[in-house]
Specification:
296 residues
Length: 296
């Protein structure tokens, strides 16, 4: 926690005595690590104290959410609403969650390392975790944010894994999701999403995603292929066979968000694949290679 000083900007507030003591009680081992921090004074001092690192880098992309905020009786409620994605008149001069998550992600990509330590802030970190599918949006994100302590250490393995299903039904049709976003041409992709912190295995994550996006149960087979999305994200495509599906059971958090557009489930025969904008390109190539393979 900072030592509040109304005479200076919050990003220059010093760490409080209690904050100094708490940071000293949570040392981190940072051998062969790159250590970077938000430029805010309290974050930089916390990161330096916890790591004992004499050369902590500064990257403004790890700063807290950009906002014009009056610290009033309702300020935490305004922050919670922002985290949940319920933006209103209180947030008219605030950075959006998507924008905050993207510049945080850009900061991570700018520091390639086997072990990266980032000193940052709760709101922007939560927005990034939501954007990566590591925690659910809405109320779950607020619960996560409210549970953060001062300081709090979160450890993640990279690359962060996303999982998708090359899902076929009993007739050999591929189950794809047609994505139609406002202002963009539609495209088709495989169902799936991010492996969340609560998922026991990647296969469990895929089964959860299939229930959320399709209301489906499936038999999950081996990994067919993998691809690297960027410096810290990869994606694995699993062979899967549809057992049952009930579209009335859909409950994915993204399905009720108009800003994300439409998610339409389609059963695509192999001869249609060539004429569709299937993404990523590796998925289309795989489906076409299956289409061209001779029957045995």
């Amino acid at each position: 926690m900072p030592r509040v000083d109304a005479a200076v900007s919050p990003d220059a507030w010093e760490l409080s005595a209690a904050g100094v003591a708490a940071a000293a009680e949570h040392p981190l081992t940072v051998e062969r690590a790159i250590v970077v921090s938000s430029p805010e004074r309290k974050a930089l001092v916390t990161t330096t104290l916890m790591t004992g690192h004499g050369a902590v880098g500064v990257d403004a992309r790890f700063r807290e959410v950009d906002r014009v905020e009056r610290v009033h009786d309702d300020f935490r409620a305004a922050r919670a609403a922002w985290i949940s994605g319920r933006l209103d008149s209180r947030h008219s001069q605030w950075e959006t969650p998507d924008a905050a998550a993207q510049r945080f992600h850009d900061g991570l990509l700018a520091h390639p390392a086997d072990h990266l330590v980032v000193g940052t802030h709760g709101m922007v970190l939560t927005a990034w975790l939501v954007g990566q599918g590591l925690i659910e949006p809405g109320g779950a994100a607020v619960v996560f944010w409210e549970s953060l302590t001062f300081p709090h250490v979160i450890e993640l393995e990279a690359p962060l894994l996303r999982v998708r299903a090359v899902l076929t039904d009993a007739d050999g049709r591929c189950v794809l999701i047609k994505r139609t976003r406002p202002g963009h041409r539609p495209y088709w992709t495989a169902p799936g999403g991010g492996v969340e912190l609560a998922d026991a295995t990647a296969e469990d994550a895929l089964r959860r995603e299939l229930r959320e996006e399709l209301g489906a149960e499936a038999s999950v087979g081996p990994v067919l292929f993998e691809r690297q999305i960027d410096g810290i994200r990869s994606e694995a495509f699993y062979r899967a066979r549809l057992i049952s599906m009930d579209l009335q059971l859909l409950d994915g958090p993204e399905l009720g968000d108009p800003a994300r557009g439409n998610y339409d489930v389609e059963f695509v025969t192999r001869d249609r694949v060539a004429g569709l904008d299937v993404l990523p390109a590796e998925l289309k190539q795989h489906l076409l290679s299956r289409r061209a393979a001779p029957r045995r």
